[in-house]
Design a protein that fits this description.
Immunoglobulin-like; 3 domains; alpha+beta
Length: 616
């Protein structure tokens, strides 16, 4: 039997510091991510990063990465033994330091009382194999992976080159995954120059501050042995004692004979997610890594009844629609655009490739019930943003009427820049610099987001082509506009179509053009002439344009400044507001250029031309 288990409650320090609640409140800004999404993303990402680093260290890119999520239930005597071994009775102490009517006390008292009932105690064990494990005694501080993983909030990026998140923020996912905010960690690892131990086990809890002395953090372990005296400080169980305690707490046995054995196991008391919810989240967030077989990335779940649950993203209601575009993106050798598919390189103005965009028109529309909290469809109009670790950063929504979806796969050269723009939960790429995000990093994100939008817009012209520009007749004449402009009810339906006297033909654009300061402007040129059916007539007209900038391709936006110029001289032509008033003769083909004022590259520009017919 290992040393008697004990929970130590961390005292407030006159040096200040983060309380226990900071470790899970740091993850509250989570976009549209559910608790199961957060657990699936952060836990696997921390373990996957560890595996990538281990492969790099031992120079073995073929080392398999395995992640096993095992749900267990303890009943009767087995449950009592676990509660005693985990010293969960010690949690009555922090609760006693809170007022009896405190909401926090009531909530956790209810959860602790459930431990005394006849109901099964549910536990979730999250184990990775093929990683470097949580090596290093906590006394080494940032030189200890265990310290960075469970003792410290925040921290430096884990893996140089290809990296996901930070160990310090990853613990928040474990905390949120336990109704009692209690996590145990058991790890095996190779010996190092500063650490000859190969097994450690420790428990941590992260609660709100309680009483006047304690910051809300608790630590499970043994009292440190310091020579003949015994310190009150709690340290992890090590080697044989760690293995014995792991067995008492229900951990699956871990070996120490080779790299495939090393890694970490985390146990969450009273998990907040079910096996089915976790499976769905893993498939929707990690399908790129699962599908890319060369990565040797293996994740599985064991249900409460011991049944193995395999990951099948090709059967997932969301993920299955994105797998084909992803494979096509990885294999793209030349750009393509037709009425079924879009394959394009996203580049900056220097033609440096930032990644590949590949989208397709769905053969069948997905279920209308698949919507997020804002009512946007989970598949239609979505582009899955993916970079090095092969986790879906987000399913970016674009309000496109055609049922399309696709992926953007970032080039490895820009992985570091994009990762630097992500919040702790990695659910978006920020395009605006801030005090903690450098401009050079957000510039890469701007190129990507602007490039995706621009190429989708061009593709939409192919998917829903406008009438031929040579025969685009303008129908906005004064007799139809007058009732609208005066606020009256719209006129009755127009008579059957007839030939209109004026046509507009675009020679170029509208196209976005990069300008100084990282902004863009829209440029276009077009010509106006009388149609063949009205060659014997002179027509007085007002030719003008309207221009708006919009975010996320919305139907309407903000009016924006522009310059509409008439090329060459024309008698009796003069400006009328932002247009031109003139007489169009049968021999005329008047040419115009349009240049908008510069605007933020994250926006889309919408140009509309109009011709108002006056008296002949």
């Amino acid at each position: 039997m290992p040393y008697s288990p004990f929970w130590e409650w961390i005292s407030l320090s006159d040096d200040g510091g983060a309380g226990g609640d900071a470790f899970f409140k740091s993850l509250r800004a989570s976009g549209n991510l559910s608790d199961s999404d957060i657990l699936a993303r952060e836990v696997i990402q921390n373990s996957w990063d560890s595996a990538l680093k281990q492969r790099e260290t031992i120079k073995d890119q073929g080392l398999e990465f395995r992640m096993v999520f095992e749900f267990k239930e303890f009943k009767g005597e087995e449950k009592k033994k676990f509660i005693k071994s985990a010293a969960l009775g010690d949690f009555l102490f922090p609760l006693s330091n809170l007022p009896t009517d405190d909401a926090y006390r009531i909530r956790f008292q209810s959860e602790l009382n459930a431990l005394k009932s006849n109901a099964p105690l549910q536990l979730l064990y999250c184990s990775d194999y093929g990683g470097h494990g949580l090596f290093g005694h906590p006394s080494l501080l940032k030189g200890s992976i265990l310290y960075r993983a469970l003792y410290y909030l925040g921290g430096p990026t884990k893996v140089q080159g290809v990296a996901g998140g930070n160990y310090g923020f990853g613990k928040g996912a474990f905390v949120k995954g336990s109704k009692l905010h209690i996590v145990f960690a058991y790890s095996t690892f190779d010996k190092t120059q500063n650490d000859k131990v190969q097994r450690r086990l420790v428990g941590c809890s992260f609660w709100d501050q309680f009483g006047t002395k304690f910051d809300g953090r608790g630590r499970f372990g043994v009292r440190a042995q310091t020579g003949p005296s015994v310190s009150q400080k709690i340290v992890p169980y090590e080697d044989t004692e760690a293995e014995e305690m792991a067995n008492l707490l229900g951990f699956t046995s871990r070996g120490i004979s080779g790299a495939e054995d090393f890694g970490a196991s985390f146990m969450l008391v009273a998990p907040t997610v079910s096996p089915e919810e976790l499976k769905d989240s893993i498939e929707q967030n990690w399908w790129p890594a699962i599908e890319e077989k060369s990565l040797r990335f293996n994740v599985q779940i064991k249900g409460y009844d011991g049944t193995k649950i395999a990951m099948r993203p090709r059967e997932n209601k969301v993920a299955k629609h994105f797998i084909s575009p992803y494979i096509s993106a990885l294999e793209l050798t030349s750009e393509r655009m037709d009425q079924r598919t879009l394959g394009a390189y996203v580049t900056n103005v220097q033609r440096q490739k930032h990644g590949v965009l590949y989208a397709h028109v769905l053969k069948e529309q997905a279920e209308d019930s698949l919507v997020d909290g804002r009512g946007d469809h989970l598949i239609h109009g979505r582009i899955a943003l993916i970079r090095g670790p092969r986790m879906v950063v987000s399913y970016k929504h674009y309000p496109i009427k055609t049922a399309i979806c696709g992926v953007f796969v970032a080039d490895d050269k820009y992985d570091k820049e994009l990762q630097a723009t992500e919040p702790p939960l990695h659910y978006q790429w920020a395009i605006e610099p801030s005090s903690d995000i450098m401009r050079e990093h957000t510039e890469a994100a701007k190129v990507v987001m602007r490039g995706i939008r621009s190429r989708l817009n061009k593709w939409l012209e192919v998917l829903t082509p406008p009438p031929p520009r040579e025969d685009t007749y303008v129908q906005l004449f004064a007799d139809l506009l007058a009732p609208f402009m005066s606020g009256k009810n719209p006129p009755p339906p127009p008579p059957p179509p007839r030939y209109e006297p004026i046509s507009i033909r675009f020679a170029s654009g509208p196209n976005p053009v990069a300008v100084k300061g990282g902004k863009i402007r829209t440029e276009a040129s077009f010509s106006v002439k009388t149609s063949d059916q009205f060659k014997d007539e002179n027509i007085d007209v007002v030719i003008g344009t309207e221009f708006q900038i919009t975010e996320d391709d919305k139907d309407s936006g903000d009016s924006w400044g522009f310059e509409l110029s008439l090329i060459g001289k024309k008698e009796r032509a003069f400006r009328d507001g932002k247009g031109w008033r003139l007489r169009l003769t049968p021999d005329d083909e008047l040419k115009f250029t349009f240049i908008s004022d510069p605007y933020n590259s994250n926006y889309s520009g919408k140009l509309k031309t109009f011709v108002l017919e006056g008296n002949k």
